[in-house]
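[#protein-structures] MJ: dropping Acetate kinase here for a structure pass
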Amino acid sequence: MKVLVINCGSSSLKYQLFDMDNEEVMVKGLVERIGIEGSKLIQEEGDDKYIIEENMKDHTEAVSHVFDALVDKDHGVIADLSEIDAVGHRVVHGGEKITKSDLIDKEVRAAIVEYQKFAPLHNPANLMGLEACEKLLPNVKNVAVFDTAFHQTMPKRTFLYGIDYKYYEEDAIRKYGFHGTSHNFITNKTAEVLGKSVEDLNMISAHLGNGSSICAVKNGKSYDTSMGLTPLEGLVMGTRSGDIDPSAVTYIMRKENLSPEEMENILNKKSGVFGVSGVSSDFRDLESAAKEGNDRAQAALDMFVTRVKRYIAGYMAEIGSCDAIVFTGGIGENSIKIREDIMAGFEQFGIKIDPEKNNVRGGCHVVSTDDSKVKVMVIATNEELMIARDTKSLVEA
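AK: finished. structure tokens for Acetate kinase:
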């Protein structure tokens, strides 16, 4: 079975074509600047790179170019689009109505539309990509894989906010969590590596990147997570503020005479380590600046590390026992020093990282000492493969 995985952003589209007989990536690509002058498709297959530079006014045109690239005589990997058996779509928000990946039907489509209110940049783009595939491949089944679905096992004690209960009942205001596809993949991979059944696994999954979240996994299911109603809550991130006193927000709005939309833009795009450091949202730039003596860059890194420590320690107490702490995502997989800094202090709980074992990037590694009471691991996430697996399973069923 060949499964095409589509991940649509507001002005971008990432894709991978999988041969699910061996779970190998046949080709992958990226379309940038959709609806903006200078649209570009870049497709890679081994050392071969194929580029299409042509303005694409919407996601339908972008998907059409993706299909053209897949069957291109010189750079394509399939002879005909009929070889694609199914398409899996990443969808950001499914609210409480979607608790698992599902074949697209009226109910699933309605949920994508309804929860645009909480993901106005992502859900509309996800829907456009879906509709484009339905139009161009009318006889192929489409599957939606939701970022929020994995976290729908959270109990009320962890997902409710301390506000009037009517806002939950009437408006569905609650914690939903994100990066669910990544946390799900890491949970299953950790169980495999440790030789445990998923149902017996308690762990902390730390997806650290420009957007970051921590997930407490209890008995193989999401029990708590750091992101909330939107991906703004939780850790301080690249440009997102993370946790903040709500009164600080209303104070700034009154002082600067800001609209809700302007304040949201500040919190999402001008805050985080970028706002604190004044240097960059890229942690590699922050580490370089800190080495050169930039105090604000160092403060931003210290804030990030401190927040991660706080969530990991708190979640360990929530789940009661912990088999593993797993780092993933761009920073989690690749920043040796940040992993080391985060785990410093956990020695008092018998959790120790081995500096030599920790000198790795990506892959799948145990980086804790042999006598550590909890395994500390680095596992490269693969959200696209998780989407492809769910798609294959649902279509075959």
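MJ: nice. The CA atoms of residues 239 and 250 lie 19 Å apart.
AK: one more thing. The radius of gyration is 21 Å.
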